[in-house]
Amino acid sequence: MTIQETPAPVLASAYQRSVADYWNREKNPVNLRLGEVDGIYHHHYGIGDADWSVLEGPEETRDERITAELHRLECAQADLLLSHLGPITPDDHLLDSGSGRGGSSLVANQRFGCHVDGISISETQVAFANEQAEKHGVSGKVRFHLKNMLDTGFETDRFRAIWNNESTMYVDLSQLFPEYARMLRHGGRYVTITGCYNDSYGLPSRAVSEINAHYICDIHPRSSYFKEMAKNRLVPAAVVDLTEATIPYWELRAQSPLATGIEKAFLTAYKDGSFQYLLIAADRV
């Protein structure tokens, strides 16, 4: 099937150019080493109880055990997100918005047999992800594009489901959700897993500000998601607070050779209540 696309500017601001440059240059071992475990490269965090026995045993294989466990936890996060997409058939088209190195798109295709388009403003990520689709033998159904999620150029009503996995903090939600409402079929499903700051805490805490600076992003307040969804015919069907479920991932990562130094800020923000990790699933009505 040929995709009819309308040309759209990929980088529309200096900020977007800075984000693209960051991800074009990014070669963080915590993203690459975990993907090397099984060839599925995710760009997100993990959930679930950690197997702390990986810290025990032979010292020469300790790093390998920790890396495999971190990857298991991030795969559990992706599986949870995909389980909220609703009924998906092999003929359906899905959009992985902010697709990183493509891991979630590949898992969605493996799970549903469906068509998946992934988009990123990073040329490096798009090229890497398309190489992975080729390696996995699914390039006929899973394709990655250099596109801006605020103005994708995809046709109206194209997608049965759209998701963001930890990427909404790079965009203005008041611009994002109108585009999703346009592309989603009536009755389609939108799912996001995201970190957001707790409105009841007040303004972003120091730890949240550290996270913003580290990833050159702008974490939104929790209320903004629901306000902007309501304006754009996206009605929440499920809201899951994953804050407690993600803490074991960060505690284990802090003891990993792949730690980046931002682990303390995440743990502080989650534990003091200023930061929350949410899954939101919403239907297009």
From TrEMBL:
GO terms for molecular function: methyltransferase activity. The keyword Transferase applies. Pfam families: Methyltransf_25. Residues 95-188 form the Methyltransferase domain. Its EC number is 2.1.1.255. NCBIfam families: GPPMT_Stmyces (NF041943). Keywords: Methyltransferase, Transferase. CDD domains: AdoMet_MTases (cd02440). This is Geranyl diphosphate 2-C-methyltransferase. Signal peptide: none annotated. GO terms for biological process: methylation. The keyword rRNA processing does not apply.
